[in-house]
Specification:
With 216 residues, this protein is mainly α. It has twelve helices and no strands. Helix 8 runs antiparallel to helix 9.
């Protein structure tokens, strides 16, 4: 019997009824899709949820779900997790991973594997896309968000981008209008990605103000 069988026990597991009432869209406000960069935030939201609700043993493979199949509370929570996964992924992913009889660990592993398998090919592709990521006509928000998403994807497959390379790529691939700002960034003490983004957003705002005044 699972630890959830006695909810008066301070060491007991989660209550299946409480888990079922969780609005998964409030807790995981993204849809996992193979066509965009949603994997890192999707996984992050779910990992936080697993920790918050004491659900890690349903997805980390530490407990044999076949043994727990006789425990109705365990299987109830497992079914809820599977429903969460299916509710927060695209239809194409759903049709790819769905299979009768899978437990939550299996579904979680398949979904993660879809984005982390074939690591060598993914690493080459993502690294090239990262180094070729230029601001062009994008806003600072759009440009820096995309750069950070690519860095996160590389980290997820075991090929992290170090801070110096991230900052140098961000600076080097700015639009030419930010030439002066790029020079100033190299002089910033204790440089970091959030600091660079904050400075560039202020500079973008200043440049828009100058342009607007010139037009008038």
């Amino acid at each position: 019997m699972s630890s959830a069988s006695s909810h008066s026990n301070p060491f007991a597991g989660p209550d299946p009824a409480t888990i079922r009432l969780i609005n998964i869209r409030d807790r995981v406000p993204v849809t996992l899709d193979a066509t965009n960069s949603s994997y890192h935030p999707w996984k992050t939201y779910f990992t936080l949820l697993f920790h918050e609700e004491n659900l890690l043993d349903h997805v980390d493979g530490s407990i044999n779900s076949r043994i727990m199949a006789a425990d109705p509370e365990w299987t109830s929570i497992d079914a809820t997790l599977i429903r969460w996964f299916f509710t927060t992924i695209s239809r194409d992913l759903f049709l790819t991973v769905i299979r009768d009889g899978d437990d939550a660990t299996t579904v979680w592993t398949k979904l993660n594997g879809f984005f982390t398998d074939n690591k060598l090919q993914r690493r080459v592709f993502l690294h090239q896309e990262f180094t070729d990521c230029h601001q062009d006509d994008q806003t600072i928000d759009e440009y820096t968000r995309r750069l950070k998403q690519l860095a996160d994807e590389l980290r997820d497959i075991g090929a992290p981008i170090d801070d110096d390379f991230l900052l140098s790529t961000l600076t080097a691939n700015l639009h030419e209008d930010f030439g002066n700002a790029a020079s100033n960034l190299t002089l910033m003490p204790d440089p970091s990605f959030p600091k660079f983004v904050s400075y560039l957003k202020l500079e973008e705002r200043r440049m828009k103000g100058v342009k607007k005044r010139a037009q008038h």
